[in-house]
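To illustrate the input format used throughout this study, we show a single complete record. The first block contains the structure-token representation of the backbone; no residue identities are included at this stage. The design step must infer an amino acid for every position from geometry alone.
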């Protein structure tokens, strides 16, 4: 038997991936020592080196994203690119952790833990299957509708699509002997896996709290428009409601054409789901508390108190999430040990805060303005009309996601610059439409590849879908979804008076 080579022995000892580490180090040195472009300060250019290296480290998975974030915070502090003193540089590097939007995501992830712990998420999934499961396409709609129901309070699209919905989808497929290990995945499993996956980006577009990067996008839109277009939880939900519902209703049909299941009729799915519900037993007190908390949060996020008692009773979105978590703690639905054990929430706090800091410093140091000015100049010199410019910006932003393995990293790295360019090139009366289409693109792009977001490797890794079909379906669905947002969304936003 051959002995492992030096590289393999070294890699076994190192806590990080060696080749990505070398690529990141070389990239940092190239940017750091390259002549700075005209229009940027030396500190800004050195920060670009840190930023590009950090994003590349996330894409190449040099280390877990949380570890990369800690390293990035340390390097920003040491470099003094943001401030002249060490104390101020550290304060700049950690400043984003007092951002309420970051805590909105973290607390919402903790609240969503209750869906899994109580079994309510699984119960809802099987209820939809029991109602719609006589046909394979009906099961697909059941999965999509359950995704929709869970989306407002599960800001981790990975937890929703991969942690809650995928085990349900997989158990249904295996019940029909649709098993990749047996080569029978085409019976129903391939179709259901694709529906399971492509429901995820659509529902992520429907609510601020449906995926982690959305609050970041809210900040960017306000910044790019000088505060003239600000999205609240309920205004986001209103604007995205009709186009997202249309996309969600159309998606299972499109997938049915792209990857038709071998079994069209699935009468056994209904008794299967009913048996699962029977095994879950009667609705538990903890599930009732979870449902009532869910409804309370939706009412508060939608501005219920302000609508009844006046603007003075409006509640901040982060406060609403904290209220929901407090209720679950007081009722014993979640324990403090549950909170401490929810690693994904604390992981999100670290990496999301670091990415918000990096993106904020890009703007503070004038890097976003410099990049957007040059991009705008290039588009203006090309002589294209503003509708073509808008299409170029949206398509370039969306399809550049082929180079990213993290939606948050992509949004952090590119979205503000593209929004800023659009704000300069697009007439004011159509600017809101552009902003909303960019929001749609930031979630639609999650369906492109098997590494596009955290949900991707979970569902792709289950083996139901081949790589070629995954990429092909992802590209086609990106076109279909964006056409829905352009046509139906455009009409809906016209009715709402946005243009």
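Output of the design step:
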């Amino acid at each position: 038997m051959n002995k492992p080579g030096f590289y393999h022995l070294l890699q076994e000892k190192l806590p990080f991936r060696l080749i990505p580490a070398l690529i990141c180090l070389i990239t940092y040195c190239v940017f750091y020592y390259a002549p700075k472009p005209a229009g940027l300060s030396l500190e800004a250019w050195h920060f670009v080196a840190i930023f590009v290296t950090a994003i590349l480290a996330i894409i190449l998975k040099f280390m877990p994203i949380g570890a990369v974030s800690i390293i990035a915070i340390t390097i920003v502090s040491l470099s003094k690119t943001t401030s002249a003193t060490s104390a101020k540089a550290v304060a700049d590097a950690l400043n984003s952790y007092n951002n309420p939007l970051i805590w909105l995501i973290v607390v919402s992830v903790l609240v969503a833990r209750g869906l899994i712990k109580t079994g309510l998420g699984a119960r809802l999934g099987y209820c939809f299957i029991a109602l719609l499961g006589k046909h394979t396409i009906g099961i697909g709609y059941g999965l999509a509708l359950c995704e929709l129901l869970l989306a407002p309070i599960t800001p981790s699209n990975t937890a929703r699509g991969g942690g809650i919905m995928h085990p349900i989808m997989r158990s249904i497929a295996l019940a029909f002997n649709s098993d990749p290990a047996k080569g029978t995945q085409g019976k129903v499993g391939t179709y259901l896996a694709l529906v399971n996956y492509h429901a995820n980006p659509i529902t992520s577009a429907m609510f601020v709290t449906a995926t982690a990067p959305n609050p970041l996008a809210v900040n960017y839109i306000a910044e790019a428009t000088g505060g003239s277009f600000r999205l609240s939880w309920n205004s986001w939900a209103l604007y995205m409601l009709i186009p997202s519902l249309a996309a969600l209703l159309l998606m299972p049909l499109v997938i049915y054409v792209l990857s038709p299941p071998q079994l069209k009729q699935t009468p056994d799915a209904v008794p299967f789901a009913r048996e699962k519900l029977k095994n879950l037993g009667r609705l538990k007190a903890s599930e009732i508390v979870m449902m009532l908390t869910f409804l309370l949060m939706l009412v508060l996020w939608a501005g219920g108190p302000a609508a009844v008692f006046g603007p003075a009773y409006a509640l901040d979105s982060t406060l609403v999430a904290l209220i929901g978590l407090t209720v679950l703690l007081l009722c014993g639905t979640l324990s403090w040990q549950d909170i401490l054990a929810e690693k994904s929430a604390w992981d999100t706090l670290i990496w999301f805060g670091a990415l918000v800091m990096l993106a904020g410093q890009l703007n503070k140091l004038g890097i976003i303005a410099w990049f957007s000015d040059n991009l705008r100049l290039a588009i203006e010199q090309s002589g294209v009309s503003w509708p073509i410019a808008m299409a170029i910006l949206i398509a370039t932003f969306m399809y550049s996601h082929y180079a990213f393995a993290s939606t948050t990293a992509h949004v952090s790295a590119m979205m503000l610059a593209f929004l800023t360019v659009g704000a300069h090139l697009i007439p004011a009366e159509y600017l809101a439409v552009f902003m909303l289409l960019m929001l749609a693109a930031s979630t639609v792009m999650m369906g492109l590849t098997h590494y596009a977001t955290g949900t991707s490797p979970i569902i792709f890794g289950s083996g139901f879908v081949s790589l070629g079909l995954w990429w092909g379906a992802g590209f086609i669905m990106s076109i279909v979804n964006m056409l829905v947002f352009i046509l139906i969304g455009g009409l809906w936003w016209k009715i709402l008076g946005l243009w």
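Structural context for interpreting the output: The longest helix spans residues 467-495. The chain has a mean pLDDT of 88.
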